[in-house]
Design a protein that fits this description.
Elements lengths: L2 H29 L9 H31 L3 H12 L4 H8 L3 H21 L4 H8 L11
């Protein structure tokens, strides 16, 4: 599995998920004063908040790994990865903008992903760590790239 690719392609999704969960946490916390309608009362609310907080922290940690690893890379490498994998620009689009052929873009992407994977590992996010921490999520990713 190309976990580095999965991380790049899903960083925006993870960020939006963390924000959505944080919003739901705030709403649930505000409703916590009225426990009459909640199934398990205050204890149930606290347990639900705890689960939601853990999930939000997982998504935030995911985003931190990606951002820190990207910041370790040279600007050109970082820009290429962001354009193709985060912003979903086509490789031919990137090639036209840079004035190079598509083959060169593919070669640079291959090298850039290797550098990104190395940077992730320096941050402590190995493939094993990724699988243990984030393997339970259904990531939308085409690993054939």
């Amino acid at each position: 599995m190309n976990y580095e690719l999965t991380m790049l392609k899903n960083v925006v999704r993870a960020q939006k998920s963390a924000q959505s969960i944080a919003h739901r946490i705030r709403l649930l916390a505000m409703r916590s004063y009225d426990t009459a309608g909640f199934r398990n009362g205050t204890l149930g609310q606290v347990q639900k908040l705890q689960k939601m907080c853990c999930r939000a922290e997982l998504f935030n940690g995911f985003c931190r790994f990606v951002k820190k690893a990207l910041n370790r890379l040279p600007a050109g490498v970082r820009a290429l990865l962001v354009e193709v994998y985060v912003k979903n620009r086509s490789r031919s689009d990137v090639a036209k903008r840079c004035g190079v052929n598509v083959g060169k873009v593919y070669r640079k992407l291959f090298a850039a992903r290797k550098l990104f994977r190395d940077a992730l590992e320096k941050e402590g996010c190995t493939e094993r760590f990724f699988n243990e921490s984030y393997g339970c999520f259904d990531w939308l990713c085409n690993d054939k790239d």
